[in-house]
Amino acid sequence: MNTESIFQLTITGDGVALDGILGLPKQPRGIIAFAHGSGSGRFSPRNQFVARVLEAGGFATLLLDLLSPEEADDQRKIFNIDLLADRLLLAQAWLHTHAQTSGLRLGYFGASTGAGAALQAAAREPQAVGAVVSRGGRPDLAGPYLSRVTAPTLLLVGGDDGPVIGMNEEAMNQLTCQKDLIIIPGASHLFEEPGTLEQVAKEALRWFQRYLSPASHRTKEFRQ
C-alpha cells in the first residue's frame, strides 16, 4: 500500500460539522472526494476498498459523511441532492485551501445517490474538478445539471442492475463532456459478487490516472 498517512478530520461550515477520513500517499497525484449513497458514509466497506486501491495508485482520498449523524436519520435529507451537493462543495473548498491538499487536482467518486450530488457539484463549479466516476450511480438525480458537466465522467453499472442501467444510459445522452459507460457483467447494484468491486476500482483508477494531473509538490506535515 502506498498510503503514507490516514487522518480523522472534521470539516466545518454552513452551520454543520462533517466527519471524514483523509488518506495521503507520498507525493499524491491528485485527490478523490467520495460522495456516498443513501444510508452510507465514510465507513462504507465498498468505498473504503476503492479508496485503498486509489491510494495504492498514488491518489489521496477523502471519505466524508455528507450528513451529520442527526441528519442521517432524516429521509428528506438523505435524498436531498441539492443539500448533498452543497456539502460536497463545502469539502471541495476545504481541500482547495488546506495546506496538504491545496495543490492537488480534484476528482469525485459518487455511489448511488451520491453520484447525483457529485455531478451536480461538478456542474456548479466546473473549474474545481478534473474528473468524475460514478459507481452504481443515480446520475439522473442531477437532472438539468448533467448538460453542464465539463469534467470527464465515467459511469460504472452492474450488468444485473437493470433499472439503473437505463438511468445511466439516459444520463449518457444528456452529458456533453468526455464520457464513458461501462457495464460490469454479473454485478448487482452493490457489486457484492466476487471480482466485481475490484473491477470498479480498477476502472476508476484508470480514469483518474488519465484525467487528473500529477501533483507537483510533496505532501506536507498534516495539522488539523
Instruction: Briefly note the CATH topology name.
Output: Rossmann fold
Largest β-sheet summary: 8 strands, mixed
Order of helices and strands: EEEHEHHEHEEHEH
Count of folded domains: 1
Shape: globular
The CATH homologous superfamily is termed Alpha/Beta hydrolase fold, catalytic domain
Q: Proportion of β residues? A: 15-25%
Radius of gyration, whole Å: 16 Å
Number of helices: 6
Unreliable spans are 215-224
CATH architecture type: 3-Layer(aba) Sandwich
Q: Helix/strand/pairing class, anyone?
A: alpha/beta
DSSP strand tally: 8
The helical percent reads: 25-40%
| Terminal residue distance | 24 Å
Name of the level-1 CATH class: Alpha Beta
Average pLDDT: 90
Outline of the structure:
The protein has 224 residues and is of the alpha/beta class. The chain is built from six helices and eight strands, in the order βββαβααβαββαβα. The protein has an eight-stranded mixed β-sheet with strand order 1-2-4-3-5-6-7-8, with helices on both faces.
Task: Note the main attributes of this structure.
single chain, 224 residues, alpha/beta, Rossmann fold, eight-stranded mixed β-sheet, 8 strands, globular
Write the layout of secondary structure elements.
Blueprint: E1 3-13, E2 16-25, E3 31-35, H1 45-56, E4 60-64, H2 75-78, H3 81-97, E5 106-111, H4 113-124, E6 131-135, E7 153-158, H5 162-174, E8 179-184, H6 196-211
Parallel strand pairs: 3-4, 3-5, 5-6, 6-7, 7-8
Antiparallel strand pairs: 1-2, 2-4
Helix pairs in contact: 1-6, 3-4
